Amino acid sequence: MTMEMRHFSEIIQSRLLAERDTDGLWTGRLSDSALATATAVFALARVDPAAHRDRIERGLTWLADHQNSDGGWGDTTLSRSNISTTLLAWSAFTSAKNESDYRPAVDRALSHILAACGSLDSDAIVAAVRKRYGDDLTFAVPILASCILAGRLDPQTWQVIPRLPFELAALPQGCFRWMRLGVVSYALPALIAIGQLIDSHRPAANPVSRMIRRWAKRPTLRRLEAIQPESGGFLEATPLTAFVTMSLKAIGIADHPVLRRGVEFLIRSMRPDGAWPIDTDLSTWLTTLSVRAIGKDVLPEADRINIAEGLLARQQRCVHPYTGAAPGGWSWTNEPGGVPDADDTAGAILALRRLDLRDPRIMNAAAAGMDWLMGVQNSDGGIPTFCRGWGRLEFDRSAPDLTAHALAAWGAWVDDLPAGPKRRVEKAMRRALVFLLRAQAEDGSWLPLWFGNETAPGQTNPVFGTGRVLGYLSEVPERFFAHAAWWVSRATAFLIAQQNDDGGWGGQKALAATLEETGAAVEALAGILHRINAGSKIDGISPDKLLESINRGSHWLRQATRNGTQFDPAPIGLYFARLWYAERLYPLIFAAGALRQAAGLQA
How far apart are the C-alpha atoms of 466 and 472, rounded to whole Å? Predict the structure, then answer.
């Protein structure tokens, strides 16, 4: 890399450092969300339209102003229209004091729904929503319930909406993994609230089932109250909280404390422009990503100590009431609604290592985090997001990028552990490597769980997924890396082949490049070249060709950022139930990480 590009890397890192908040960490800003805005508006209107009239109208005005040209709405203002968000926005307009004020937006929405569903008949709309989500009822059922409550679908539609077995939430938490539920592990609040809503309109025909559900209403509502965080926001998620709130109102318990706290959360979450984000923030995740992107040499010791203190304070110290997760994990946010998960736990463990501080508390925290990761490792050797063993639906299965992240986290500390814990971690790492081998596609790629590309076939993102897995593998100790050399060679060849002629990367070859995807690819390839230069043997990869690809990608990053002055985010983030989001800091973080890795290579 030339001196000029090294200077450019320093500029990007300085800009990322300047993004720290008053606590010295990174908070970022999630994109405005049409889906979150529609659900929040509708929930507030169901609870008390007079008290929330100003918020309702501001939210509806934002929706009308951000409607796509085809009449629909996407999950972000940069996203393609989809039937789910469009149906929710269409339903939200029934909250207007005078719906005729928004008639043009409503009419355009109707045209989009007609084109997407082939009919405005309730059965056609139900079929379109079910097709979008398949077996996952987590969002399909709440969306349809919202449409019925809004009067957009025939009330008889209650008879065809799949039931949610809310009565199962009365059972001990450890039983959930053995049940083939149509909702994922994070959706317990929706299971309870929406399940009771459906039951109130469609009681079970079987008298025994009816009796069980009647009995289960109170204990499951008590569980709902017990898992609600003090912020009122379940998972800090606007849509999930809004669905719960509207359901409780609809079944006639408007004075319930869960509803009251949910409304308070929705009010606090509204932005000045009239929109809501999909979630409060990703502050822990962004902080660990930023530490990775910057490196310890750029951070003064006082700053590193401050960041470490912040991460130590965020580690979960007790069994989590929401998922029953053991102590030792980290959530994506410091807000009360966050839940420990594998990606953020691995990220925090790695960040604490990179901060390079001599503090016994850090070693203890890392050891607890590594134990947490081993506790969620699935029988296939892979790592899921929240809970071991659910596995039926996409967001509960083992994922390659989460598994590789855990491998890097374990590998960063394994040689510092006593003999017994070291053996356990090494066994977990070997099992994780086997999972990655089985999860790799024939073309050498891996698919990520929490990221995608709306323009790619199947909306997958093999470039980003492969980049993240390769980047993590490039950090593991040599004795483990050597076992992965063949897979690394195939994945490296895949990434090089996916590079566009302009030097950037999209979700796959020929798709428009983004800063996030290009950053992930360059960082991964640079990490692999560092391993080759350090003596790792990877057959079939030419170091010269690898360096050429890295340099072309680095120059694309410089051009795309206008020499480090412009960082346009892309909606590549996948939230729960395949909802898209963009994060303002992602392009800056991934560009900084890529250029830092590339800066150590010779031109």
Answer: 10
Dihedral angle at the C-alpha atoms of 451, 455, 460, 466, nearest 10 degrees? -70
Residues linked to residue 579 through DSSP beta bridges, in sequence order: 575
441-466 in b/e form (b: 16+ CB < 10 A) is eeebbbbbbbbbbbeeeeebbbbbbb
Band the pLDDT of 185: cuts 50, 70, 90.
low
Query: How many angstroms separate the CA atoms of 56 and 99, rounded?
Result: 12
How do 276-277 and 32-33 pair as beta strands?
antiparallel
| pLDDT (0 to 100) of residue 603 | 44
Token reading at 92:
């939200």
Q: Give tens-digit pLDDT for 460-487.
A: 999 999 999 999 999 999 999 999 999 9
Burial class (CB in 10 A: 0-12, 13-18, 19+), 395: buried
Q: What is the pLDDT of residues 283-292, one digit of tens each?
A: 999 999 999 9
Map out the domains of the chain with their CATH numbers. Answer: 33-277 (1.50.10.20), 281-418 (1.50.10.20), 440-597 (1.50.10.20)
**pTM (two decimals):** 0.94
CA 199/CA 166 separation, integer angstroms: 9
Q: Cβ(538)–Cβ(570) under 8 Å?
A: no
Is residue 370 scored above 50 in pLDDT? yes
Distance between first and last Cα of the chain: 4
**What angle do helix axes 586-599 and 3-17 make, rounded to 10 degrees?**
140
Region of poorest pLDDT, from 34-38, 374-378, 394-398, 437-441: 394-398
Longest dimension (CA), the chain: 78
The conformation of residue 231, written as its DSSP 8-state character, comes to T
Note the Cα 320 to chain centre separation in Å: 19
Q: Which residues contact 332 (CB under 8 A, 6 or more apart)?
A: 279, 282, 283, 284, 285, 338, 341, 343, 344
Q: Are 407 and 433 in contact (CB under 8 A)?
A: yes
- Alpha-carbon distance 159 to 173, whole Å? 29
